Amino acid sequence: MRERYVLLGLARARADWFRTVSQWSTSASLPAEFVRCVSAEELRARLTSGRSFSAALVDGATPGVDRDLIAMASEAGCAVLVVDDGHATRDWRELGAAAVLASAFSRDELLEVLAATSAMVGSATVDDAQPELRDVRSRGRLIAVTGPGGTGASVTAIALAQGFATGEGLSSPRGRRQAPRPPSVLLADLCRTADQAMLHDSRVVVPGIQELVEAHRTSTPLHQQLLDQTFEVPQRGYRLVLGLRRARHWVAIRPRALDATLDSLQRLADIVVADVDPDVEGEADAGSTDVEERNLLSRATLTRADAAMVVGEPSMKGLFALVRTLSDLLGLGVPVDRLIPVISRSPRSPRQRAEISSSLADLLASSAGTTADRLVAPVHIPTRDLDAALRDGVALPGAGPRILAGVVLAVLDRAGDVPPEPAASPVPVAPGSLSGFTSQEPPRS
After folding, report:
1. Which residues pair with 233 in a beta bridge?
2. Number of domains in the chain
3. Residue 127 placed within a domain
4. Are residues 70 and 163 in the same domain?
5. Whether residue 372 has pLDDT greater than 60
6. Helix, strand or coil for residue 95?
7. Which residues of 94-118 are buried (b: 16+ CB within 10 A; e: fewer)?
8. Regarding beta strands 185-189 and 79-84, do their DSSP bridges make them parallel or antiparallel, or are they unpaired?
9. What is residue 368's predicted lDDT score, i.e. its pLDDT?
10. Residue 316 has pLDDT above 90, yes or no
């Protein structure tokens, strides 16, 4: 079969360039097959059909053309060429587009761009270009806080953020030197059922994480624009990102836009404390993409977190739930040396605390097969009435915030400066790729 480009096309109605490319393809003046799509949904469906496509020509003003669509096409080996009329102020290269064309491009210009970015179908040419590695040194630390319901994980996230924000003399989160001032701290509510607005007595619920993720679908907001979508908590020294207004609004969170949002938040502050749910089931566990998308906030945060605090309580049921949560996070790919168990409402007796720590290590070793010597010793937080401080919006009393921040810094120093690699995403099986895996076992008589 003669090699040719197979192009997907998506544009507004009566776009001149769309009709021109179709004519070039029909008249064979362009060595390409042009497959026209009427919507972004159709383009997504064709990308997942198993057919090979060289490139996708998309109109920059078409609804649905965003970071997730571009990433989906790139993962399918289809370069995205954006036709921009100049009216939209978007950095398409930053969003992942392979090239940007003016609305009045010539056939030679299109051929030149295709030769540089795409491969003909059937061609043996392999694109050896490696994606540019992200600069992780310019990003702040991401600390996730989670735990079963009713254990005080959200309040622990507040205490940890306060401990970093007011902790004079703590070592710098971006290195091992002593920090001359407390680091900038951001508390992000990334729970599906968000409680931080209530715990901070917020009179407004907009903007929140929904608006931040939506802004990252088609661009990357500037530093000041991000700050404008956070709220200052001066009594505790950090800034707050509000969570989802309703639990059902998780459907508005898209994966690539969320990844870009987390990148921006980590560049906005030295420390990002994320309050997340303990539910991390994915498609591989439940057999449903809906379940994975429902738990997207937790999965995306925990797989890239530099450390994760898991809060439990010291009862029999509480330890069982804590071990189950730790096992789930280990199954997700969170390294055991970056997990920090926290026992809230812990007894004050040293003997009782030692028994709790020993039981936790034994249960986790038998449940997840994890060596107990690599697990950080649990942080015990005694019972303390914090309702008055939360109600009045003042700093949480006691040494708990400072202790939590110190433990996290110790874990980061022990684990090293390089954040853990995210868990590998599932890779679709290409049609025909399993043809070589035939059984060599002789047939049974």
Report:
1. 238
2. 2
3. no
4. no
5. no
6. helix
7. ebbbbbbbebebeeeebeebbeebb
8. unpaired
9. 67
10. yes
**Which DSSP string do the residues of 386-426 spell out, in sequence order?**
-HHHHHHT-PPPSSHHHHHHHHHHHHHHHH-SSPPPPPPPP
What pLDDT was estimated at residue 299?
A: 97
| Each residue's pLDDT tens digit, 177-203 | 445 567 899 999 999 999 999 999 998
Query: Are 142 and 107 members of one domain?
Result: no
Are 146 and 271 in a shared domain? Answer: yes
| C-beta atoms surrounding 373 within 10 Å | 8
Q: Which pLDDT tens digit goes with each residue over 18-33?
A: 999 999 999 989 999 9
Cβ burial 305-343 (10 Å sphere, 16+ → b, else e): bbbbbbbbbbeeebbebbbbbbbbbbebebebebbbbbb
Domain with 111 in it: what CATH number? 3.40.50.2300
Do 154 and 76 belong together in one domain? no
Q: Which of 9-13, 317-321, 427-431 has the lowest mean pLDDT?
A: 427-431
Structure tokens at 261: 């949002």
For residue 170, what pLDDT is reported?
59
When the pLDDT of each residue in the chain is averaged and rounded to a whole number, the result is: 86
Write the CB contacts of 392 (distance below 8 Å, at least 6 apart in sequence).
Answer: none
Check whether 428 has a pLDDT greater than 80: no
Give dist(CA 217, CA 257) in Å, integer.
5
In the chain, count H helices and then E strands: 17, 13
For residue 249, the enclosing domain spans: 136-415
Cα separation values, 376 from 25, 176, 322, 358, 372, Å: 63, 20, 14, 12, 8
Question: Which residue type, as a one-letter code, is found at position 144?
Answer: A
**Any residues with CB less than 8 A from the CB of 343 and at least 6 apart, and which?**
312, 313, 314, 322, 353, 356, 378, 379, 380, 381
What are 14's two structure tokens? 């009566």
Last residue of one domain, picked from the residues 52, 86, 117: 117
Residue 142 shares a structural domain with residue 56: no
Closest Cα to residue 300, out of 215, 428, 425? 425
130 domain-assigned? no
Q: Which of 117, 147, 172 is the last residue of a domain?
A: 117
The pLDDT value given to residue 14 = 86
Residue among 267, 143, 147 nearest 195 (CA): 147
Same domain, 70 and 206: no
CA nearest 100: which of 79, 121, 119? 79
Burial of 68 (C-beta count, 10 Å sphere; 0-12/13-18/19+): buried
Query: Confidence band (pLDDT; 50, 70, 90) for 234?
Result: very high
* Whether pLDDT at 169 is above 80: no
Kindly report, residue by residue over 113-136, the tens digit of the pLDDT.
999 999 998 644 433 333 333 344
Nearest to 241, CA basis, from 217, 278, 266, 259: 266
Helices (H), 139-187: 153-166
